[in-house]
Give the backbone structure.
Amino acid sequence: EAGVTQFPSHSVIEKGQTVTLRCDPISGHDNLYWYRRVMGKEIKFLLHFVKESKQDESGMPNNRFLAERTGGTYSTLKVQPAELEDSGVYFCASSQDDGTSTFSSYNEQFFGPGTRLTVL
Amino acid sequence: KQEVTQIPAALSVPEGENLVLNCSFTDSAIYNLQWFRQDPGKGLTSLLLIQSSQREQTSGRLNASLDKSSGRSTLYIAASQPGDSATYLCAVRPIEYKLSFGAGTTVTVRA
């Protein structure tokens, strides 16, 4: 079974440009999450989709960030316009968890390899 | 606001020694706690998940304990090997789904 995949693995852009990151979750996982780690800090939650709906976007830093999950499959995270402080590693994760089961494997969040974003 | 702390930040041990990694959190109202491993330049690999109702979880040489009331979890790795060298992260999940991460413990196992 394929894991969570992310594209691209690296992106280097100039300040003010637009970048779109893509995440493909594990097949059958309704929950999809975005997290990021900026330099020297802990990994922080950005938002959570259940199928195509945004369940929680409390971690989105500002309105330059737009996440979508059309059709409830893959998701994109667009940064427009990018700023220097947006540099970091963006992780995507997915899980089956529908809140009704306490089986560990059902609740686990599985992470992708991340996209390293550098804004110059 | 949940704060997750991992001590020590770095650890170096000779091969064969047991590893003890600590994680503490400030809000005991958690749903579960997950331990991850991260290799340099790679993503996070889930190691163990402990539900809030559980006291411990085991997988091979790994054992994780949870004391929710005191806000602590410990990851034990028995008979460490050089391949265990990595950064270990703990993350707690409240009833909502978002994980709060610690900064990690970087482990080096010397051959």
